[in-house]
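Justification of computing resources. Each target in the renewal requires a structure prediction run like the one illustrated here; the chain below, 407 residues long, is used simply to show the kind of job we budget for.
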Amino acid sequence: MSRMRKPILPFIVVVLLIAAQLATVLPTYAFPGDERDERCAELLAQAEAVTHAELSTLNVGVSGTTTSEANSTVSNPYADLPEDCAPHTGMTAIQLRAAEAEMAKHPTPDVVQVPYDEDVVWTRAYRRLNGDITIYDAPNGNPIGSLSAGYNFVTAVSYEGGWVQINYGQWVPEEQVTFADVSEFSGVEIQEQPERPFAWMLAEAYPSRYPGGPEDKEAEKIERYSLMNIYGVEYVDGWEWYLVGPDEWVQQIRVAKVQPIKRPEGIGLDEKWVAIDLFEQTMVAYQGDKMVFATIISSGLALWSTPQGLFHIYDRFENTRMSGAAGQPDFYFIEEVPYVMYFDGDVALHGTYWHDRFGYRQSHGCVNLSIMDAGWLYKWTEDAPTAAVYVYISGIYRSDLPAWARR
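Resulting structure tokens:
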């Protein structure tokens, strides 16, 4: 009795379904994370193992041999590697697949956006004065003072017949008054310690399909101030590229990255303190070792760099006047600067209503924050009025950046 042959159609259907599922899971592009990457990682591990073995035979620190002397004795561990293998090969295929799983599980940073509050941002009518200013005692009144052309900002009290009152008994012509560029940006509160770095987009762009590649105009453009997780890093021609989504890579110069740092010596386990990264132009508020808030800032320009080191807030003002550089092209006069916290001489953390360029250096040394962020920090430090401020730089400013990327 012959056997009946089972139909093969169901089997084919099952195979096709499995193939379709794999097609949706596996990345479209093999680079980065192809077999070459994994082979390079294997060769690098072997080379480094040989190096550690050679160093151990020199008894570094025991026989008087220094680390630098030992390094000069040991041969170059990478000399015999293939030309396309380097010490920083980036992500392996396994790491890339793990990152894809993380993207599905955590598509956005696990943080809480501080909501925009119009009552906080617009407590005053912020205005800019343009050109050389003559101040009058009343509309069409008598001159009582003047301001040289510069970076001059005031708050408008009232309007009357083509004139603007800027203080009691002080009026200026309305044609010399324009609106200030008040930012609505705000940072994020951190309730659980981040498992990966995250970043804000500073210069809008389409993502690239692979690191170092051209912008993918078919993808959705990533707008300025967009918040993204960083799932991996690749190095292309000396530049870092960040994996921020499925087949989405952005160059480091387009973002401001947030990552934790070690609590500086001298700050207590439960003490409130603030970390300012001049390279990334970010600020993180900590309580002990716990991150509680993060945002982007604007620190001092190259000629007026924000000082590095460990400081403490020594004076606070809900609003105050700032001025400087009298008689110079960069003269500035700014009334009612909000939420000011001085920590080193005339250098302060404070709210900023005269620019929306956070993520890039802008100031004469102070740390500029959006009004929302300065208000958050001012309130958070009410019970810690002398909170520590740690200013550091996590990288080196490069001179070969395009103009739009210079921070």
